[in-house]
DNA sequence: TTCAAGATGTTGGAATTCCAACATCGTTGT
DNA sequence: ACAACGATGTTGGAATTCCAACATCTTGAA
């Protein structure tokens, strides 16, 4: 564990815990390091979850099997991210599987331990604050993508995404963090069809784009061309 | 406030707080009741959020405006549900608007107050537990829908949704909580096209359905017909 | 029981999207 | 400068979805 104390202390979750409190806190949380080889299954769907995982090193693939046994990719989790945080808090069974795609290290800890009524150290409160912020951050992130996918056409998905990017950058001109293929995956549409739709939107005067740079155009401005 | 103490105590969030602790706790949280007429705007996008809202009575419409000024419905919030919980925790600005669709009552309270390092009453810890569970529950709910929408065709969206319903009911035969129109909205597809796709799936041997009752069929069983 | 309204299924043409194939553009390494 | 490769844009036919219109089935009220 001591080998990874620095890494743990760099994570969003434990960053604000005073360095001297970290080791006893981890002990209180009944935490444990586990090492996974590339390809090794870390978590299988169907198990009741008690501990949260914090990825210290490596990358995990998060996926699920449907009723007909087909595998579906959900997300790729990288160093610094949590896993099973929701099931651990709510004490539910996970429907997801997790496999290491490269050699990985996970810190497992019992977050509910921190909520015990009789233990109220400062570092406990700090950890709870950080943990809640992580849950809230994830919620907002899921809401954002959900509102992009909750559209009936590629055009509307694009406009939804670009609208929020403009809001996020507080400007009608901005760079997006995706290339075309990544954007198509994010919106769950086919790359070349999306590319065609972007061209159509540009022709229609909604925007200008080149690579990952975008400029959105207001209808009122468009008519003044 | 006293008029609504019973309602508050019935909510998921405050249910587990001892009844005698409730009123002082609400005071500690700097809480406040607000009343909204039908049609009245409760929250406008762009404001930094400090308090969480708990809907005690009524219904709110949650929506956003895109860059081009078009309004998009996000969700309909009913009695017992929280609003702005994520922005309040993370201290961020909300991009959503909320309007009362009928006469409504909201309890506003400062959840961060509960996380102050110097205040550690039992009821505080209980509230934090309930609040975290709500965040986690919402996260799981968003993940569920997201994985249904993250498909390229109506057929795949349906199979994803039905798979998880089967898992949830722990049975290949179950009732879904939607009628056809609601299901189409949930999956962001057109009702009649979805209806046609369901018929096609039934013909192809994936399932049997009548109204909101479904029975999923395994390929292996299908071939034995 | 009958009727009316709502829910569901079906159909055909228009529009969109998928998909594969290929052209063009940009970047990187030599 | 040039070649190679990856990213992006374009195109056409197949497949899917939208959309409107209508038929049929269910449910609840009279």
Strand content of chain A: 15-25%
Unreliable segments of 5+ consecutive residues of chain A: 221-225
**Biggest sheet: strand arrangement of chain A:** 1-8-3-6
Distance between the termini of chain A: 64 Å
Instruction: Provide the number of structural domains of chain A.
Output: 2
Largest interface: A-B, 55 and 55 residues
Radius of gyration of chain A: 21 Å
Detailed description of the structure:
The structure is a homodimer of 225-residue chains. Chain A is built from eight helices and eleven strands. Chain A is an alpha+beta fold and 225 residues long. Chain A has two domains: 2-135, Jelly Rolls (Sandwich); 151-221, Arc Repressor Mutant, subunit A (Orthogonal Bundle). Chains A and B meet through α3, α4 and α5 of A and α3, α4 and α5 of B. The structure holds a DNA duplex (30 and 30 nucleotides).
């Amino acid at each position: 564990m001591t080998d990874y104390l620095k890494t743990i202390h760099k994570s969003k979750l434990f960053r604000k815990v005073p360095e001297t409190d970290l080791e006893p806190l981890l002990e209180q949380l009944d935490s444990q390091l586990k090492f996974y080889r590339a390809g090794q299954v870390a978590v299988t769907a169907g198990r009741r979850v008690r501990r949260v995982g914090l990825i210290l090193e490596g990358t995990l693939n998060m996926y699920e099997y449907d009723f007909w046994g087909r595998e579906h990719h959900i997300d790729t989790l990288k160093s610094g991210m949590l896993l099973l945080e929701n099931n651990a808090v709510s004490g539910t069974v996970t429907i997801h599987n997790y496999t290491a795609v490269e050699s990985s290290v996970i810190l497992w800890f019992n977050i509910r331990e921190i909520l015990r009524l009789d233990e109220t150290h400062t570092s406990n409160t700090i950890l709870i604050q950080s943990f809640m912020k992580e849950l809230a951050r994830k919620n907002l992130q899921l809401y954002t993508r959900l509102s992009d996918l909750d559209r009936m056409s590629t055009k509307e998905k694009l406009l939804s995404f670009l609208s929020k990017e403009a809001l996020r950058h507080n400007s009608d001109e901005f760079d997006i963090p995706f290339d075309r293929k990544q954007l198509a995956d994010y919106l769950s549409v086919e790359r070349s069809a999306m590319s065609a739709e972007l061209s159509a939107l540009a022709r229609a005067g909604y925007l200008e784009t080149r690579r990952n740079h975008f400029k959105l155009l207001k209808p009122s401005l468009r008519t003044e061309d």
